[in-house]
Structure prediction request, 204 residues.
Amino acid sequence: MSNNQKYCEPSIARVYSEHVSAATPISRPPPFSLETHCISTHACKHYDDSDPCLSAELDTHMIKHYHTALDTCLWVVHKRAKVCGVTFTSGESIKGVKRNPSDKMWRCGSIITLVKGRRSLYAWVIQFLSFDKIHLTHVKWLPIPEYPCAGNPLVVLLRSGGTLPNLSCTVDLTEIDPSRIAILHENRQCSYPIRLTGIDTMRV
Prediction:
């Protein structure tokens, strides 16, 4: 990425060109996986019923699947989850981190993208939750994306203070696109999420 953050869009274009250039080693892609679930560890704990909005959503899911309201404290909170074999981690800094010293991009394992209302949207994962066979993501929605390069879906802009989607605070794991996200911050007002696989869906 460019060290001069005034040139985010050209920098993003350069990263994409480097990624697909002949200089990049070409290897066989990993086998596609349908593995989609919350990851259970000894650190998992039960939901403490501390968020009224989330608790109401969990009640709705209980009634939908089991036709009765059950104690929301039965839900288990998870740190990580897999979506089609791709691992996501909740609660990471939205500024992103470098996974190893050789990385050129800052990645955030807590930013997800999915299609709602015929368009791609982005969200930050607060936590993952499961009960029986239900696996959910508790999210904070990010501003509706803009496409500053003449509508090119490769360059995605999230503008601070932009319009937020009016949607539920929970998302089923199966709705999430299995794409890791790198993040570039131009300033406190703008950030550019970069999908490492796939491209955004735009309304026509």
Q: What stands out?
A: Residues 52-66 form the longest helix (15 residues). The radius of gyration is 18 Å. Residues 5-25+33-195 form one domain. The longest strand covers residues 119-131.
